[in-house]
Design goal:
The protein has helices spanning about 10-20, 25-30, 40-45, 55-70, 70-85, 90-105, 105-115. By secondary structure, it is mostly helical. The chain has two domains: about 1-50, no CATH class; about 65-130, Lyase 2-enoyl-coa Hydratase, Chain  A, domain 2 (Orthogonal Bundle). This is 1,4-dihydroxy-2-naphthoyl-CoA synthase.
């Protein structure tokens, strides 16, 4: 719709979409302003899954519970690292070295390593996700 009303995303959104779906598809989306189905969005890589509306909340809760079972520090650092890709490879490499050094010294890392060696599910503690 943007091009229909003399509006455009000249910033992050258009570049991010091109990164997600490729330049040609992003140009189609922005230039033509068409509506796409959930299945089409999935096939383009814009969404991770197509979930019926009545299952959406339960699915989101299930995914959140899966993430909550992971190392909080790892999840935080992965999110940070994925966002840093726009800073180029130098920023990514510096971040990776520092983040790895930081993470390996945590109690979570010790618990993760011990759980792996003991062939059990790690217990990172329920309160780790609370501010």
């Amino acid at each position: 719709t943007d091009a229909d009303v003399t509006s455009f995303d000249g910033g992050y959104g258009s570049a991010y979409l091109a990164k997600m779906v490729g330049q040609k598809k992003a140009r189609e989306i922005f230039f033509l302003g068409r509506d796409y189905s959930a299945q089409e969005a999935y096939e383009m890589g814009m969404v991770n899954a197509v979930i019926p509306h009545e299952e959406l909340e339960d699915t989101a809760f299930q995914w959140a519970q899966e993430v909550l079972g992971k190392s909080p520090t790892s999840i935080k650092m992965l999110k940070f690292a994925m966002n840093l890709t726009d800073d180029g490879m130098v920023g990514q490499q510096v971040f990776a070295g520092e983040a790895t050094r930081l993470a390996y010294g945590t109690e979570e890392a010790k618990e993760g390593r011990n759980a792996f060696l003991e062939k059990r599910k790690p217990n990172f503690g329920e309160d780790k996700w609370l501010p």
